[in-house]
């Protein structure tokens, strides 16, 4: 709630006006997050199913604010509760057990000062927060070099994946010579997350829950770690070497992997065509995305449409190899050597916002009065800026 109090009036008015779009609709949004409700129901129905939840997201479960002056020479970084959509959706589940762990990225305060992680004020502030007892769960940081993070976050996540998943392809901004490098760094960050998750010593009794389009390949790398662990175990038990493949499958203690996409999944054929002139191995990024997501045991989408598009692409790439079944509104896809042995379970779990926070702000007198004066406002891309403009132009253009 504190977050909203600091927003400028015009921003609050904008939120007030789009509020019905955010919570409305047949599938997106509900009086209570369906994702939260489903997760809590499953959790309480079988409290012994998972010992821990190890959650991974690009963003931390709190808001970091740097000091305005000489922040490198002080330890004044502020840490406050986050009211972002991702935290709103998953925090009720993750904070239900103090043994749960949240894995997130962090960069140094300022690389120009060449501080070590132990000397860095931002990292020191996070460590202080971790040891203060204010968090209801464990915190685990993935330290990423700033240059790598820029290519991972701005280059790949924001300039390619976000507009691609929203089917706003004109917003994709990448040069051919840059593409190989930013995809490489994106994968490296995903690999760092996978390694950090393994440091939490997950077992078959834990649930590893990966969040959003920043971390599409984490599941794939965790599966590779599974195989490596099995091979190491195989070497220690030489008497099973004769039946190598069979023992590998038996020895492998599988991770339970879940993935939830907080954006639409609206990849189109045009996205593939956007990269047709790139090097051969990167020509079909869409297939890499589908393959990476299929490595999870469970994948959650916001709408049936998003899930249907994903299934369509999976069928396109794997055709006769794909086996599809439906059980209790869950689509189960099995592809040998691609999905887990029991298949990849695709579900639909719409996530919403903290409705009480928005309604209390919308009812403020100053917001209501300012809203009445507002006549012209630019809408965000996801609310149909382009289509709305075209429709208005068509409406006011004289017909011959």
From TrEMBL:
Claim: Mitochondrion is one of the keywords in the record: no
Signal sequence, start to end: 1-24
Origin: domain of life: Eukaryota
GO terms for cellular component: cytosol
GO MF annotation terms: alpha,alpha-trehalose-phosphate synthase (UDP-forming) activity; trehalose-phosphatase activity
Pfam families for the chain: Glyco_transf_20 (PF00982)
Keyword Signal: yes
Gene3D superfamilies: Glycogen Phosphorylase B
InterPro entries the record matches: Glyco_trans_20
Keywords: Signal
An example Gene Ontology biological process: trehalose biosynthetic process
Protein name according to UniProt: Uncharacterized protein
Gene source species: Meloidogyne enterolobii (Root-knot nematode worm)
